[in-house]
Amino acid sequence: MSDPLSEPAVDAGTEAPLPALTTEAAPEAPARKRPKPGERRIQILQTLAAMLEQPGADRITTAALAAKLSVSEAALYRHFASKAQMFEGLIEFIESSVFSLVNQIAEREPDGGAQARKIIAVLLQFGEKNPGMTRVMVGDALVFEHERLSVRMNQFFDRVESQLRQCLRVAAESRGSATPTVDANVLASALTAMAVGRLHRYARSGFKRLPTDNLEPALARLT
């Protein structure tokens, strides 16, 4: 069975396909009565992500998750030590997916300004393709969960901003800026705030206001 959490090799352009956490579990082989342990973990994460896409999913209980999977809560805890660990699994998918694409951009795009625009684009495209993950990214799904999850998600955006600072400093230096570090810090902060704001609006609109709407002209003005 192919791993629905795997990340495909993609082009670093803004039109590249983005990884998505498939929300439909792959069918089991007819002769197998129970999924393998790794497969069940994936099914749990897929189901949790799918539930986060539904209206009113402010707090998902392990009882509701178990019922959705037609298993007992004890069965969930055979694969995850806690619900927090399940959310950590989703965060790990977000981190690995986004930063694998960011690394590709850094390797393939020599222009610092173009790098920054593509980083913001793939971040927002990822959120658009994974609505349930967007609620994790902006913290809505983590309000009633362990504090360390929100801390880790904040660190994710700090890392995005740090990557933006690096490429924007290169861009500022190439323009002959007298203060490339200051310029890069200010613009990286503004771009990160814009991305987070667009993801928030996407989640709060019930996934109707797409985060990539009019993105190219907005990035052109900022960078």
Mean pLDDT: 87
User: What is the count of β-strands?
Assistant: 0
- The low-confidence parts are 1-16, 25-32
**Succession of helices and strands:** HHHHHHHHH
The whole-angstrom Rg is 19 Å
How much strand?
A: under 5%
What about the largest sheet?
none
Secondary-structure content class: mainly alpha
Tally of helical segments: 9
The quaternary state of the protein chains shown equals single chain
Helix content range: 55-70%
Distance between the termini: 43 Å
**Mass-distribution shape:** elongated
List the helices and strands and how they pair.
Blueprint: H1 37-52, H2 62-69, H3 73-77, H4 83-108, H5 112-129, H6 131-137, H7 147-174, H8 180-204, H9 215-222
Helix pairs in contact: 1-4, 1-6, 4-5, 4-7, 5-6, 5-7, 5-8, 6-8, 7-8
Describe what you observe in this structure.
By secondary structure, the chain is an all-alpha fold. The chain is built from nine helices and no strands. It is elongated. The N and C termini lie far apart (43 Å). The N terminus is likely disordered.
Keywords:
elongated; 223 residues; mainly alpha; 9 helices
Summarize the structure.
The protein has 223 residues and is mainly α.
